[in-house]
């Protein structure tokens, strides 16, 4: 019939298939997630490995240790190596059961080795020469690596006076077996600075990079790692400058400090700015100023006063001498201040003060931060060092 509508067919809608039930993690996966959240203290993984074979198998696995370091980020600060005249003793700063005995990180030095840097769980010593020898030491694993400085930097015309050690990007969790060593040298007239870098991955030294500059007597001061660069504070006439070596570009640059800053090197330390760029701290009596580099109105980098910190809490600790800067903990972003009654750590972000030792003699502190793997003892250990390579 015209105009009559045909009946619609009723289509039954089929419900979409339900997703399969989520598979529950097995017991080992669940246990692994729990163990990953153990605090990154030195005693955590070694003690967990003693519970049973199953726990030891998990926490000793290299993949688990990589995940553990990635989960916690920055390694804990275990203590400091001190720049002594005859040795470089270790001063622990944690409480038991995480306190590493000084003897555990001691090493018999058969020559007058001088500590020149400490970073990423490695300590760098410069041995007397000629030829100048280098010792890269991992105190946790007790492994050593001996190097001979490149002849281009160790000759009658050049004299090595400083250096740095680090693990390449991606291996900074104190786990990579690869490392880099940078050496800084000057000529006899103190008119030229040169630098050369060794890579354990290739086993060779890079080409020497040099820069003309009129130096005063170089000071013994630890390097600071900022981004891709290593930085050193150097005296030039009546002021100080920052020598910066870019590890990626393999370039050297010198940056003068602003005019108002006093030239006393004991009151200066290179630190990264809050944005990760180049900066430094200047301490005058009990007033500290933090400076950073940033573009000015013309787009050129210039020094800008970022902020100030008052060290009023240290006044009672200084009876005859002004406080001095003796170290910088990169992982903790904290400066170390020497006073008459001891050494204090000042956290730059929170401005919290913490006393770390009673040492009253001026001594450069080299902070040692590292994750402690399973199966490694914390108690006193003498000897047992494994020499990986003699070059």
- Portion of residues in beta strands equals 35-45%
Low-confidence stretches: 381-391
How much helical structure, as a percent, in the residues?
under 10%
* Rg (C-alpha, Å): 27 Å
Q: CA-to-CA gap between the ends?
A: 104 Å
* Strand element count: 25
Q: What's the average pLDDT?
A: 83
What is the global morphology? globular
Total helical elements: 4
List the secondary-structure elements in sequence, H or E. Answer: HHHHEEEEEEEEEEEEEEEEEEEEEEEEE
Structural class: mainly beta
The biggest beta sheet reads:
5 strands, mixed
Q: Order of strands across the widest beta sheet?
A: 3-4-5-6-25
Protein name: F-box domain-containing protein
Domain F-box: 24-68
Region (Disordered): 1-26
Features of the shown structure:
391 residues; mainly beta; 5-stranded mixed sheet; 5-stranded antiparallel sheet; F-box-like_dom_sf
SSE arrangement:
Blueprint: H1 27-36, H2 44-48, H3 53-59, H4 62-72, E1 77-82, E2 90-92, E3 114-119, E4 122-127, E5 133-138, E6 143-148, E7 158-166, E8 180-187, E9 192-199, E10 204-205, E11 209-212, E12 224-226, E13 229-236, E14 239-246, E15 251-256, E16 268-272, E17 278-284, E18 287-295, E19 301-310, E20 324-329, E21 334-339, E22 342-347, E23 353-357, E24 365-369, E25 386-390
